[in-house]
Design goal:
The chain is an all-alpha fold. The chain is built from 16 helices and no strands. The model has no long low-confidence stretch (mean pLDDT 87).
Length: 321
Amino acid sequence: MDLGSILQANLLSPMVLAFLLGALATIIKSDLSLPEGLYTSLSMYLLFAIGLKGGVELSLTPIEHIIWPVLATIALSLLTTGIAYFASRKLGKVDHLNSAALAAHYGSVSAVTFIAAVTFATTVKTPAEGFMPALVALLEVPALLLALSLGSSETPNQARRELIRELFTGRTILLLLGGMAIGVVSGKTGVEQVQPLFGDLFKGALTFFLLEMGLVAARRLSDLRKHALFLGLYGVGVPLVNGAIGVGIGTLAGLSAGGSGVLGAMAASASYIAAPAAVRVAIPSANPSLYLTASLAVTFPFNLVLGIPLYNQLASALAHR
């Protein structure tokens, strides 16, 4: 498929259209809202489901096939965090605490962007490796530790201990790794018992979740107006750079075109679940209107609508050189 066809297929997918519907509902001040707690429930379901599927695939993958992707992902985590910090500090002239907060978000991973990228790769017949969920944790934890160490001047020792505990016990990492462990132990035969819930319903749940994400993202548009130029350039420019680097590193590490595209989407994404919680603990004076608006109102929609297809197409082009 050429880039135009891929972009069209993505823009007309139920997932992207549901996100746009949610955004439109907020913009026109509709009373549309999802029941309280549904966002958390759907996010937990999606994280566990992708971890479970990844665990099954991991149980079938020889260890030598994942060594280089693992090392490459750790290096990518530190590199993208540094780029995000440099871009805000040197180019955007943002103070070091807010730069560290932005780096924490852009160095770590949006789990929903990851799930959308995996789903998209499968849809366009370039499926990613099954062990990709394991790389989410490897991209997330070093990035947060590095970024928050840059803003550690106001982080007391007790807060640092709480931060480390939160990184390893927060629901994003716990559900992904826990689901993966269950998938590895149960194997393909065992997981077939829950296939109707964690297989057949997955895309429908993701579509409904993105409807809610559209509602949430559009609510931050008022904050976007306060720093429109910086957040617009940063929220698109940093993902494009980090995404291209992620695709290149994934290709060098031996990932398939689908896997490299997903790794690029992971590197380009900005966390809005784990990172905000960590920043609140470690850098309480950082401005949420900067890091939340950039990640939710700019980067997430950009990646969902345009970024994911672009990283996939770049990975396919590199794979066929």
